[in-house]
Amino acid sequence: MARLKTHDDALRLRLINRAAATVFDRGPAALSLRRLAADARTSTTAVYSLFGNKAGLLASLYQEAMRLFVARLGDIASTGDPAGDVVRLGLAYREYALANPHLYAVLFQESPAQFDATPDGKPQMYQPLVDAVRRGQYAEQFTAEPAPEVVALACWATAHGLVSLELSGNEPPGLSIADSYERTLRALVAGWGVPSAHPDAG
To answer: Is the pLDDT of residue 3 over 80?
Structure first.
């Protein structure tokens, strides 16, 4: 049966965002299609038309969170300063998380298996950072060892840790991640640098 015109992408995104809020607050098991439809002021028929079933909704939720994340990092154009690009990717990571905390939680605080999703898309999310580090090694801004994937992982883990503390409200008293986030990224990038190069990450 053809999808009704009222069951459009705008409704699909509204349902996904509401579903993300539920998952963020109470986990995937708490998601009810009937309750979701009522909250979005639509029918369960619309939900089934757009997603098929709960599993389809959860998979779409994960895919949308990943799509937006990949698009945000894709906005960071490569420049002649790869070390600076690593910092800019880290800033984009935080911007995505603050703008989409529910979707960020779906990607990084829940298991992909709960969304009937595989981690196949993870390399796509990770690749821009690996590429920037690799270009930095070629440009002798970064040390040749370890492998770019290892350096990128350290940068990602630092960004993730800080952002997760900020989103959860677990910043130490008197300290602001917002005030120190970029400085921390720059210090991390400098730590992987070639001592004689002194790259400008700005």
So the answer is: no
